[in-house]
Amino acid sequence: MVKMADRKYNDFRDLEVWQQCRDIRKKIWNLCKKFPGQERFRLSDQMIRAFRSSTACIAEGYGRFHYQENIQFCRQSRGSLYELIDHIDVALGCGYLNNNSAESLIQEVKTAIRILNGYIKFLKKQKEQPTNQPTNQSINHLTI
Length: 144
Hints:
single chain; mainly alpha; de novo design (two linked rop proteins)
């Protein structure tokens, strides 16, 4: 039996950065469940939108044919991750989580940003190849 963690999808779900953001998404989701009811359509909603955007933009960019479009969606994902850092800081200020939890989450988000920056750098190098055509089958959805 193949476990979900061992399965290769041959799409954006194989990307380390998407997996890192997915893991953060789960943690933020569980954190938001603990917020007071008055935050349901305030901070919780904003945090949920930011973390969903981070994975969704990676997925959408992956589905684009041209490297530059993929890069642009990855940049949007990076913006959502920075937005999430701000929301975590707000949650800390409101007393919804402690200093250690906030710092741990922020470090995980920063790790995702570093991985995402590496992926963007990779995409830029691929874009600059003489043929300017997708050549890496691990990121090219058209080979599936």
